Amino acid sequence: MTAMTQSAPQADPPFILSEVRDGVGIITLNRPEKRNPLSTAMITAIHDQVAAWEHDKSVRVMVIKALGPVFSAGHDLQEVLSMDQEQAAGLMDHCTTMMEKIRLTPKPIIAQVHALATAAGCQLAASCDLVVASETASFQTPGVLIGLFCSTPMVPLSKVIPPKKAVEMLFTGKPMPASEAALHGLVNRVVPPAQLDEATLGLAAEIKAHSLYTLGLGKEAFYKQLPMGMQDSYAVGKEAMLKNLPAHDAQEGISAFLQKRKPEWRD
Question: How far apart are the first and last CA of the chain?
Answer without folding.
Answer: 67
